[in-house]
Design brief:
Blueprint (H helix, E strand, L loop, with lengths): L1 E5 L10 H15 L6 E5 L2 E5 L6 H9 L6 E8 L3 H12 L6 E8 L8 H16 L2 E2 L6 E7 L4 E4 L3 E2 L11 E5 L5 H11 L3 E8 L7 H17 L1 E8 L1 H10 L5 H19 L5 E2 L12 H8 L6 E2 L7 H11 L2 H4 L21 H8 L4 H10 L2 E6 L7
Parallel strand pairs: 5-6, 5-7, 10-11, 10-13, 11-12, 13-14
Antiparallel strand pairs: 1-3, 1-4, 2-3, 4-8, 4-9, 7-8, 12-15
Length: about 400
């Protein structure tokens, strides 16, 4: 089985294009490694050969989850000869039922005797003669895609949409604050799509709360690992910091103070893991901690960039994307999230930097951060091979 993957955004990279194409090829090898996949970089595309015993559905899912691909197709090849192409396409269509078709040709090899339009007409006439079906340029039942390369002609009957974006690993490393909810896994996925390797960090209050949020987050990390192949999930015990904040600070400011400490701890872990930015799943105005005033107060505690890929999305849009990437069902399981612990009845929605800084004077900020960082544990997830490095 030969699959041809095509890219679009990568093609705009100019001199840096080989770097991105190499990352894409490596990720395709990783995605199909347990299927015996062999990857070859071709002009403007990448070819993946997979043994025929593997179902197309499995291959399609694996390749469809690799970022950097615009579209891909299960492809057949013919010699660089018009007669051979006509014979091969007609044979491949034998037994298929359809009422209309169209030929769409892209001629990368300009020295081929016929141009794209002439190939369309010649191949279309051959298919029409063999099948008796009519040509229909708008909404045909079958499209025969033809690509003329320097050494052969490729053709296919479908083009599956790819995941788009850039290959994971091409845009650096980021640290993502990931809860067990709907939003943050989508934010993680979006940064992966932009080529980042994402290290999720999860804050929990175990044993003050049960283990459900940790279990959920670990399952979400497994799901997201399908897109970046290896994930190191960091688990931060946050209960001690929360208890200290509750005992020492004004109740309305608790949630904002929680978030400021999460940012500080995540930054310390980011430095240890060579990550260059933080990522959150915040959407402007969705909850009390995500008002513009509170976001500004939280960002005051940060020294590195804080990326919010969902900031302009509403809940319906985020939910739709969570369903698409496969995280929604896990995210909606009941759990005990640490941010729900000691939550005041009336949390501040317009906290100022001055008042949160004043409240933190009652706390050993550096000590609480160091304690949480040193107590952090990690879990490693890999896909598709559990034993892969």
């Amino acid at each position: 089985m030969l699959v041809i993957a095509r890219y679009h955004e990568i093609a705009l990279k100019g001199r840096n294009r080989p770097f991105f194409v190499d990352k894409l090829a490596r990720n395709l090898r990783r995605a199909t490694s347990d299927l015996g996949g062999k990857v070859q970089v071709m002009a403007g595309r990448v070819g993946i050969e997979v043994p025929d015993e593997h179902p197309w559905e499995t291959v399609r899912e694996r390749i469809g989850n690799v970022f950097g691909i615009a579209n891909f197709s299960r492809t057949r090849s013919a010699p660089l000869d018009m007669g051979a192409l006509e014979q091969s396409v007609v044979a491949s269509l034998a037994g298929q039922t359809f009422a209309s078709f169209r030929i769409t040709t892209r001629r990368s090899y300009k020295n081929f005797a016929l141009n794209s339009g002439a190939i369309d007409r010649a191949l279309g006439a051959a298919v029409q003669k063999a099948t008796g079906m009519r040509v229909r340029l708008e909404e045909p039942e079958i499209v025969v895609f033809v690509e003329v390369l320097r050494d052969r002609i490729l053709y296919s009957f479908e083009r599956c949409p790819g995941a788009g974006g850039f290959p994971v690993g091409s845009s650096g490393r980021v640290m993502a604050l990931m809860s067990g909810g709907i939003d943050s896994p989508v934010a993680v996925w979006r940064l992966m799509k932009r080529g980042c390797t994402v290290i999720p960090v999860h804050f929990h209050a175990f044993p003050l709360q049960d283990h459900t949020t940790i279990d959920k987050t670990m399952e979400l990390a497994r799901i997201l690992t399908r897109y970046q192949f290896k994930t190191r999930l960091l688990l931060v015990p946050f209960g001690e910091a929360q208890q200290t904040i509750v005992a020492s600070c004004p109740a309305p400011l608790r949630v904002v103070l929680y978030r400021r400490f999460m940012v500080r701890i995540a930054e310390a872990l980011a430095v240890r893991n060579r990550a260059k930015a933080l990522v959150t799943g915040e959407s402007l105005g969705q909850v009390a901690s995500q008002t513009l005033d509170n976001i500004a107060a939280i960002d005051d505690a940060a020294t590195m960039p804080v990326l919010r890929p969902l900031v302009g999305m509403d809940k319906e849009e985020i939910t739709r994307e969570a369903r698409r990437i496969g995280s929604f069902e896990v995210s909606t399981l009941p759990d005990q999230d640490c941010c729900q612990l000691f939550t005041p009845r009336s949390p501040a929605t317009a906290a100022t930097v001055a008042e949160v800084v004043e409240a933190e004077k009652a706390l050993d900020v550096a000590g609480l951060v160091t304690t949480a960082v040193e107590a952090t544990k990690s879990e490693i997830f890999t896909f598709p091979n559990p034993e892969a490095p």
